[in-house]
């Protein structure tokens, strides 16, 4: 049984007040697009598996289409739209619209010591789309929100950076790992929309 739909998510996002980093104007910024659709009687979100690239700290990771803000981007929404068009050939200005945003997250940049602020925007598409990945993307996949809402699918993985190790939540979609910032965005989306969780 479907317990939630795009209309409910959109209404919840209208009333949500995301956390914005007030100092984001003075650091590197990027935006990502969480693209939602209803298919097979359930809500789904589009994710990408980034291509394996030397020197890319997010090489091979599951993520959302997006990237660095260009000087010509007037808003974070525009960045998410442009990057989605470049990476997947999906023109969100024509086939969808933004229904809200989530809280800013802080990430390490590709280079330098200053942090980077990542702003997630949630989009609804109006009809069928066919993602065409570019060289930066190995694969695009629609992930059922019910899969993320089922905490029986959630496991713990250990990530090591230098001398430090962290135990972090993770989902395995086949051999694909959904964790880190992408999972934090999904968790916030589920919380904002009050999507019921299935606990193990």
TrEMBL record:
One Pfam family of this chain: NUDIX
Domain of life: Bacteria
Listed SUPFAM superfamilies: Nudix (SSF55811)
Domain Nudix hydrolase span(s) in chain numbering: 26-170
Coiled-coil ranges per UniProt: none
Database matches in InterPro entries: CoAse, NUDIX_hydrolase-like_dom_sf, NUDIX_hydrolase_dom
Name of the protein in its database record: CoA pyrophosphatase
Native source organism of the sequence: Spongiibacter thalassae
């Amino acid at each position: 049984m479907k317990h939630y739909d795009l209309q409910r998510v959109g209404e919840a996002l209208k009333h949500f007040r995301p956390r914005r980093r007030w100092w984001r104007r003075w650091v590197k910024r990027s935006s990502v697009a969480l693209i939602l659709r209803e298919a097979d009687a359930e809500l789904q979100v589009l994710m990408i598996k980034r291509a394996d690239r030397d020197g890319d700290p997010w090489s091979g990771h599951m993520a959302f289409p997006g990237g660095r803000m260009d000087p010509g981007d007037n808003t974070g929404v525009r960045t998410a739209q442009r990057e989605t068009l470049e990476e997947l050939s999906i023109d969100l200005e024509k086939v969808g619209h933004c229904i809200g945003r989530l809280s800013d997250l802080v990430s390490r940049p590709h280079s330098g010591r200053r942090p980077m602020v990542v702003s997630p925007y949630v989009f609804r598409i109006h009809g069928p789309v066919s993602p065409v990945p570019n060289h930066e993307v190995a694969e695009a996949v629609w992930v059922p929100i019910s899969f993320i809402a089922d905490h029986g699918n959630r496991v713990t993985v250990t990530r090591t950076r230098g001398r430090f190790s962290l135990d972090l939540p993770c989902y395995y979609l086949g051999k694909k790992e959904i964790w880190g910032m992408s999972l934090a965005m999904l968790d916030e989306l589920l919380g904002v929309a009050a999507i019921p969780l299935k606990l193990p």
